[in-house]
Amino acid sequence: MCELLGMSANVPTDICFSFTGLMQRGGKTGPHSDGWGITFYEGRGFRTFKDPNPSCRSRIAELVQEYPIKSCAVVSHIRQANRGGVSLENTHPFTRELWGRYWTFAHNGQLTDYEALDTGRFKPVGDTDSEMAFCWLLNQLEAKFPVLPDDLAPVYDYVASCCDKLRQLGVYNMLLSNGEYVLTYCTNNLHWITRRAPFGQASLIDEDVTIDFQKETTPNDVVTVIATQPLTNDENWHKMQQGEFGVFHFGELIHNRIL
Amino acid sequence: MCELLGMSANVPTDICFSFTGLMQRGGKTGPHSDGWGITFYEGRGFRTFKDPNPSCRSRIAELVQEYPIKSCAVVSHIRQANRGGVSLENTHPFTRELWGRYWTFAHNGQLTDYEALDTGRFKPVGDTDSEMAFCWLLNQLEAKFPVLPDDLAPVYDYVASCCDKLRQLGVYNMLLSNGEYVLTYCTNNLHWITRRAPFGQASLIDEDVTIDFQKETTPNDVVTVIATQPLTNDENWHKMQQGEFGVFHFGELIHNRIL
């Protein structure tokens, strides 16, 4: 299995604190030592840092922890390989273009009988169940919506119904973003928290680090963090239910579907 | 204009030396201060470091200079913006999937009347002439070869003829790679050098750094570096001609077409 970390914020915000917690699980406080990656959106563009080596001793992970890249949408993943070997092409997140936007995907779980999924023009490069599911999802979306409609509600609904199908193949916890929206799907492990004024303190579970968000934020900031398991031990994280689908937009949960 | 840097090698090789030279041109010894990027292939996978900030004072560029990522194919670019604003989505290199492989592209030059290029399903995300040209090229390739043939010779020829068309729109110096091959096209500024045993010393033009390649290599290493302008002042770089197209494979020039 793997761990996911996502962020949605209304102002460009760094994720150094949460990322520091997650990275410890990559071989130190957790067994997810088969690579890690993080994608930061800035406008329509993105940059991804990834490494097939364990995050807890990755020089690149150190840079990401120390160098505050500010973003409104982040998708991150640390991997414990099950389907597909340990290699860069199998390291999440995966990014592809659809409708003239970059879509970034990370998956926690394990699927069976995924080989028959029709990915159409979106051909997987690596050999994970996750990339296969992502390519299939994009192909489904493009077939259903050759042009992106102005009203995104039917698009959300369709993403949710595609995720429902993928869940029938196994465990499917997902983060998906185009830089503006962060979409989440839960089979069994996904939690989220929205931080807004009045901000308090929080302490990481995996590392002896405490942060005072009031010193790091302005009163109008709204920042949601999504993770497979809570990253702090003194805040109330929402646990998502089986089959729950969520859409976060600039920090706010704007759409939520519980089966 | 911009500067390009590429590498093709028969063993995973780091590019720290050449990259150090190039980065100085990003605001220090050269005017190319509108962002930079570098893509390293490892197997079928790749990782890209990029920054819309000047390379000569980029924390991420520092990491890339100090941390030897070993690769057989590298594409790098520093930008002086002409078409398209300074932003992450306009920062080269650009990477897209075709035929189940990631293709990475960087362009030096400036095109006119590029807006009418038909990019088909490969939709640009940013607003540069370069990304438009890349998307058009991929669309042409997919239309001509829906499945990648075993014999790549006709594919090379077609890439070359597409580049000839792009050159009619302006200055088009190009690097294109799928991690195994590095393809080059020259309108006016592209140089390359192949280093092999017996290895000697070389000194950067842009920074007071000298390297003894014999200490860094084994006798069987073959490493080609491609750059808009030579990076060292004590080696003989080949200058590519107008309309010249080259294919490098694991360090060797295996195909060359001069108009």
Order of strands across the main sheet of chain A: 3-2-4-1-12-9-13
Number of domains of chain A: 1
CATH topology of chain A, anyone? Glutamine Phosphoribosylpyrophosphate, subunit 1, domain 1
**Biggest sheet descriptor of chain A:** 7 strands, antiparallel
Q: Determine the strand fraction of chain A and express it as a percent band.
A: 25-35%
CATH homologous superfamily caption of chain A: Aminohydrolase, N-terminal nucleophile (Ntn) domain
Gyration radius of chain A (Cα, Å) is 17 Å
Task: Describe the global form of chain A.
Answer: globular
Distance between the termini of chain A: 24 Å
How many β-strand stretches of chain A?
15
| CATH secondary-structure class of chain A | Alpha Beta
Chain pair with largest interface: A-B, 32 and 32 residues
Question: Total helix count of chain A?
Answer: 5
Chain-averaged pLDDT of chain A: 94
- Just name the CATH architecture of chain A: 4-Layer Sandwich
Give start-end ranges of low-pLDDT stretches of chain A. none
Question: What series of H and E elements makes up the topology of chain A?
Answer: EHEEHEEEHHEEEEEHEEEE
* Structure classification of chain A: alpha+beta
